[in-house]
Amino acid sequence: MPIKLFISLGGLIASAWAYLFYQSWQMTHLPMSQMWMPPSQLVAWPLPELLGVFAMWAIMMAAMMLPSVLPMLNAFNRYCLSDPKASPWYSLYFGGSYLAVWIGFSAILTAMQWLFHGLAWLSPMMENKHTYLAATIFIIAGVYQFSSFKNACLQHCRTPFGYILNEWRPGKIGALQMGFKHGLSCLGCCWAQMLIMFAVGVMNLTGMILITGLVCLEKTSLIDAKKLSYSSGSLFLLWGIYWLFARP
């Protein structure tokens, strides 16, 4: 991968995480009067506030998902180097198209947060207030870890060179198409894990770090993919059951 592109990508990831840490710091240190509070009625949300929540989710998706795409980007770049008609800078188009999928998913997450605030299932601090919401999310995430579709998407993400060889398309448009298709597979693998942020608190840094670590582990570990998925799925199910029956 060109060193300038690598530095740019690393800077983007670092900036995204710095923003998340700053947002978390604000929520714990600023007085309530200086913080944004969601309107109590759905119709009362102005467009700038919706766009602000969307931007927050988009940055969160960039921070959590870009580290996991580095092996695929590296494989794509190496293939570009072996093709005299391809430019290593096509990696920029690949990565941008991949990220566009997760930015699109951020719109869905924004709509969910808007709804959950309107139902008073999230606090003004974006923390979960609804036991059954948290339990349902964990159970959905746990069950999905056992699904064949999840594991098919995960296998796709774990075989970068296989994907590049089978899906190679020339030129800038080809790079955009490949990045978008890989983004869709990655979304199919990880969407349920992202929903967990609604259960543990939207701006819960520990939750972000753990989910990011799990996503990267699933995609890069030498451990069998199904064993990883089934193990994490079992933990999610147990946590969901705990929310249902053990929490007051």
From TrEMBL:
<keyword id="KW-0472">Membrane</keyword>
<dbReference type="InterPro" id="IPR018688">
    <property type="entry name" value="PpoB2-like"/>
</dbReference>
<feature type="transmembrane region" description="Helical">
    <location>
        <begin position="42"/>
        <end position="70"/>
    </location>
</feature>
<feature type="transmembrane region" description="Helical">
    <location>
        <begin position="228"/>
        <end position="245"/>
    </location>
</feature>
<feature type="transmembrane region" description="Helical">
    <location>
        <begin position="91"/>
        <end position="116"/>
    </location>
</feature>
<keyword id="KW-0812">Transmembrane</keyword>
<dbReference type="Pfam" id="PF09948">
    <property type="entry name" value="PpoB2"/>
</dbReference>
<keyword id="KW-1133">Transmembrane helix</keyword>
<feature type="transmembrane region" description="Helical">
    <location>
        <begin position="191"/>
        <end position="216"/>
    </location>
</feature>
<protein>
    <recommendedName>
        <fullName>Metal-binding protein</fullName>
    </recommendedName>
</protein>
